[in-house]
UniProtKB/TrEMBL annotation:
InterPro entries: AAA+_ATPase, ABC_transporter-like_ATP-bd, ABC_transporter-like_CS, AztA-like, Metal_Ion_Import_ABC, P-loop_NTPase. Residues 4-215 form the ABC transporter domain. NCBIfam families: AztA. This is ABC transporter ATP-binding protein. It comes from Arthrobacter glacialis. The keyword ATP-binding applies. SUPFAM superfamilies: P-loop containing nucleoside triphosphate hydrolases. Belongs to the ABC transporter superfamily.
Length: 215
């Protein structure tokens, strides 16, 4: 059993079909890059796997009962949420439990470690709205990692980040892969896609290329 599979999936917004019969099996513990022009359906595919969107036809199957962790692009998330960086990352630990529940010491330790790995410790008390786009992107990634899912869905995690942050994000992805997490990464970067074991290319909601990467 792989990490996830989409089987003959079709998805439409109104009468517009934006995913047009995708049939893809994602291996466990591997990095898969998803490329394609703007509007080709990449983010929609992640939403379908994450369960935030439901297929109009076909089915999505997940290996784990737990939900995948979906990390959106920072531009897709409100900057106005009255949350500190630390609180945003802690939200990733909530899972299905009550948000009123206090974090266990172990979870607090994990949050501190994630803040450190993503270079956010100094920013932990800042409000999300006070951060730059690249800083917010790292917060969203830390929040996704705090979910401890075996399937991590990343929507352009390195878009618009500086070189140092880029390196940190690549290290964090490599670390997750080494832990056996499957990562599906939407990217426009050839360099990032080259790190993947497999590169998928979408065009108009269809799979037009499925190749093994160089990694
Ligand atoms: N909420 C929505 N309502 C209607 N149409 C939408 C909605 N979200 C996306 N679309 C359309 O669905 C299609 C696929 O969008 P999607 O965001 O999946 O593309 P993408 O490949 O991720 O693009 P990008 O590279 O720009 O992020 C596009 O034509 C887009 O205009």
């Amino acid at each position: 059993m792989g990490a996830a599979s989409v089987e003959n999936v079709v998805f439409s917004y109104g009468s517009r079909r934006v995913i047009d019969g995708l049939d893809i099996h994602f291996r466990a513990g591997a990095l898969t890059a998803v490329k394609g022009a703007n509007g080709s359906g990449k983010s929609t595919l992640l939403g379908l796997i994450a369960g935030t969107l439901r297929p109009s036809q076909g089915a999505v199957h997940l290996a784990e009962a737990a939900r995948p962790a979906l990390v959106l692009q920072h531009s897709a998330v409100s900057q106005a949420l009255p949350l500190t960086v630390r609180a945003a990352v802690e939200m990733g630990c909530w899972g299905n439990r009550s948000w009123l529940r206090r974090l266990r010491a172990q979870e607090r330790g994990e949050v501190a470690e994630l803040l450190d790995r993503l270079g956010l410790t100094e920013l932990a008390h800042r409000q999300l709205g006070e951060l730059s786009g690249g800083q917010r992107q790292r917060v969203l990634l830390a929040q996704g990692l705090a979910q401890r899912s075996k399937l991590l869905l990343l929507d352009e995690p390195t878009a618009g980040v500086d070189e140092q942050s880029h390196a940190r994000i690549r290290e964090v992805i490599a670390h997750e892969l080494a832990r056996g997490v499957a990562v599906i990464e939407v990217t426009h970067s050839n360099a990032d896609a080259a790190e993947a074991g497999r590169v998928l290319v979408l065009a108009d909601g269809r799979l037009v290329s499925d190749s093994l990467g160089v990694a």
